Amino acid sequence: MFQDIGELMVLFWRTVRSLPLVWRQRRKVADQLFEIGNASLLMACILSLFIGGVVTLQVGPIMAERGLGNYIGRMVGIAMSKELGPVMMAILIAGRIGSAMAAEIGSMQVYQEIDALRTMNIDPVHYLVLPRLVAIAVALPILVLFSILVGWTGGALVAVFNQQIGISSATYFGDLQGYVEFTDLANGLFKGLVFAIVIGIISCHQGFQTIGGPRGIGRSVTKAVVNSIVMILLLDYLITRSLMLLD
Amino acid sequence: MPEGRGVAVNVRDLRRKLGGREVLRGLSFSVKPGEIFVVMGPSGSGKSVLLKHLIGLERPDAGDIELNGRSLSEPDTLKSVRVAMVFQSGALLNSLSVAENVGLYLTEHRLRPRAEIRRIVSEKLDLLGLAGEEKRFPSELSGGMKKRVAIARALVIEPELILYDEPTSELDPLMAAVISEQIVQLRERIGVTSIVVSHDRGLAFSIADRMGLLHQGEFLIVGTPDEVRACSDSMAQKFLNA
Description:
Chain A has eight helices and no strands. Chain A is mainly alpha-helical. Chain A is elongated.
């Protein structure tokens, strides 16, 4: 385990050091960005709409019953910005994109494509990890922002149309706008960025670790997704705690 | 042997253990510039592991490899010598087209303008009978074509040392003959040093200047094809006459 952590840190450091080369890899970054957007946007939209809606559905009637219906906007606003948006998007991306990264690099490892790169003096970190990490680090915060906005809308739809809550959209968004600050959004975007780096590095590292044939690739994909999700949840707690201390 | 830009390879007492088993047991041999040296032996005798050591993909537990007198353990040795390897599977990047695979080295190191890279790629593909295949992907190629694309990719590097891992495995006899011809022609044209790992006796005896017969991580004999044929070692005879 400690060896894995050490290797992850080294891989991250080597990727950071190769950042000046990112312009040369811009085509691959663009391809990866398209891949991430194409694979995740619709899913992110559905997921966020329903999460915002379900949170409102669960808590809204209780709040309305106690005369707190006018405060549902801030509750959904904060929950989506600080927690649900970044965490749910990170889990979605770990499942869809992290798994693809581990499978692709794992397959290249198994079929000696990475050895071939090394024999041509092409650093696999520059060629494979850098574009993927940059793309996911750009895409995930954007997806988080998108998720937050769609989640708020989902909450609004339930708050307006559910008879047990029945508040106007002006009341919902007025409360949300009055309470949620830019720092709350920044908080979510920061989490998104950290989770993106974690998913990218864990998935690429797991790909490089692949041994054996198709079964080895399958094992790497599973480990990449599981390890990413565990780290996302662990880091979510630690970041939340740290940011609370800063508030 | 033609004058050219081949490098001298000197391997001294190379040892390597993998999974508790000693795969290389003190191998020593040398290859002269421009020579075709074939390492022959049955499966599992350590041939591919030896190649990986020669190109720096594996590090030995003991012993040393020198290219033109410089130890491979020195960090810049591999950068000072242009080495190419043709993998057994071809190891073409599946996400790239044939042309992109062949031009990868030049593109990634930005050694030539794009138009010139296209010209060089076409020239190499032409040389290997692959003209017009530029836009196809590795998944659309036969085993023999993949091998030839891999050789074209190696040629683009303009290597001083070229390593072939089982270049004729999984090929029909006709294609195997084409590949062996390419290996010899390449040496004749640019004087590259070639180390070929194979268990194909036909290929080995037809192209080798010298050869080594590897068995359980040790050379049973190193010499010219005639010397190897005349070797009295029972294990060597068993392999040669099987």
